[in-house]
Amino acid sequence: MFRNQYDTDVTTWSPAGRLFQVEYAMEAVKQGAAAVGLRSTSHVVLATVNKAASDLSSHQRKVFKIDDHIGVAIAGLTADGRVLSRYLRNECINHAFVYESPLPVSRLVVRLADKAQVCTQRSWKRPFGVGLLVAGLDETGAHLYYNCPSGSYFEYQAFAIGSRSQAAKTFLERRFESFNTYSRDELIKDAIFAIKETLQGDKLTSSICTVAIVGQDEAFHMIDQKVIEEIINSMEIKEDAPADQAPLQEEDKGSEEAPMDI
Amino acid sequence: MALRRDWVYENNGGTCVAIAGSDYCVIAADTRLSVGYSIYTREFSKICNLADKCVLATSGFQGDMKALQKNLAARHLIYQHQHNKQMSCPAMAQLLSNTLYYKRFFPYYTFNILGGLDSNGKGCVFTYDAVGSYERVGYSAQGTGAGLIIPVLDNQLKSPSPLLLPAKDAVTPLSEAEAVDLVKDVFASATERDIYTGDKVEIVVINASGIRQELMELRKD
């Protein structure tokens, strides 16, 4: 993507019908550390790569509990992600207060998408620079959605966002058809496998990834580091299928990442 | 005398009691919901578990009680999201006081007792009026039967006066089982003479191992 005369304002269209500022916001998501989500009929798992800005600092939090039945994983500007998580939590609490029942996931993602859309149509705002994988369970079953800065959202069986996510997507594409029949533990294992794909050579340790799960009888929670450790150790470290090379145009990795990106 | 048409409250009766111990707290409330000389239901809980170590018992107008409980529960959820931990009992006590005073000019018609364990694991009981004035005490009773119960608790629990110096511990030296027995006795006594108290008493005990609940039958008349 190159600079052009239509990319200064979010309220300026290009002659080709594109809003460049919105597309640049989606770039910010691609720069963030990877996050993956997988769904079966009864559970949804989110896994993220934890990156620390330096060896001295703590890891950024990329997974947020929104309510007992919903959680999100983010990629991109974590500050934007934190603010949106606060908004999502409030929406869930207010709905439960009035209706004495959990907010359906599909309603939540629409509100989030509408909030994102507002920022694409105001000259004094900027789009949110964060993509969210929303995992939740409601009366209609298990759901995984991806909300992007443009204000659009889609439901997925499995998805990956952030840097080097193409490798994870390829891995998931090969296996997603059987996810609905997966057991809870198989789902967690495949999520960790998918994260491993995005590391492409870097060692997978339990300190580098966060895994969270929500299920019919399980409130949304992060899985203990020790359990992740055990799963990683039991995973065979043989290359069963080589991770596909990420097409270079997709991963526009800058030489340095801006400090607020994760 | 003009007819007043703006009275929006109703007293649903009932009594709440709480006793603080050195490492436990007992909170109890009867389960009768009444209006006037009628009974709406014999199985209505006036107790709400707000947090791990914090329980609220409310008597008065149950419409306001429900609204107040929901309000506090939602605020507690927000607190947990922001601070990654449960609210302590003293923190919840202040929050309840502020919530009540917020409606100083259209009050919650509720008479509350908040009971639980403080951050040191000692039992604590906070007692409130309708607009949020509160105090930490060793024991308390609120509601229609309070006038019958408080003198008995005063006699049994020998709580030293808060006016004495040096400040003495407010918590009772009784054991948990003795405190529960005392609560059962005072409820049975209040049930005899207060028409709004009876049916069942719900007793909640908080200690280091968690929250335990038991029900005891009372006279149904």
From TrEMBL, chain A:
Keywords, sorted A to Z: Cytoplasm, Nucleus, Proteasome
Record's keyword annotation contains Cytoplasm: yes
Protein name: Proteasome subunit alpha type
Pfam families with a match to the protein in the record: Proteasome (PF00227), Proteasome_A_N (PF10584)
Region (Disordered): 239-262
Localization per Swiss-Prot or TrEMBL: Cytoplasm; Nucleus
Organism of this sequence: Zingiber officinale
Lineage: Eukaryota, Viridiplantae, Streptophyta, Embryophyta, Tracheophyta
Record's GO cellular component terms: cytoplasm; nucleus; proteasome core complex, alpha-subunit complex
Domain of life: Eukaryota
Function per UniProt: The proteasome is a multicatalytic proteinase complex which is characterized by its ability to cleave peptides with Arg, Phe, Tyr, Leu, and Glu adjacent to the leaving group at neutral or slightly basic pH.
Start and end residues of each Proteasome alpha-type subunits domain: 6-28
Any one GO BP annotation for this protein: ubiquitin-dependent protein catabolic process
SMART domains found in the cross-reference section: Proteasome_A_N
PROSITE patterns cross-referenced by the UniProt entry: PROTEASOME_ALPHA_1, PROTEASOME_ALPHA_2
Family affiliation: Belongs to the peptidase T1A family.
TrEMBL record, chain B:
Keyword flag Nucleus: yes
Oligomer and partners: Component of the proteasome complex.
Its job: Component of the proteasome, a multicatalytic proteinase complex which is characterized by its ability to cleave peptides with Arg, Phe, Tyr, Leu, and Glu adjacent to the leaving group at neutral or slightly basic pH. The proteasome has an ATP-dependent proteolytic activity. Non-catalytic component of the proteasome, a multicatalytic proteinase complex which is characterized by its ability to cleave peptides with Arg, Phe, Tyr, Leu, and Glu adjacent to the leaving group at neutral or slightly basic pH. The proteasome has an ATP-dependent proteolytic activity.
Compartments it resides in: Cytoplasm; Nucleus
GO cellular component: cytoplasm; nucleus; proteasome core complex
Main location per the UniProt record: cytoplasm
Protein name, UniProt field: Proteasome subunit beta
InterPro entries for the chain: Proteasome_bsu_CS, Proteasome_sua/b, Proteasome_suB-type
Organism per entry: Zingiber officinale
Family named by the database record: Belongs to the peptidase T1B family.
Domain of life: Eukaryota
Keywords, ordered alphabetically: Cytoplasm, Nucleus, Proteasome
A GO biological process held by the record: proteolysis involved in protein catabolic process
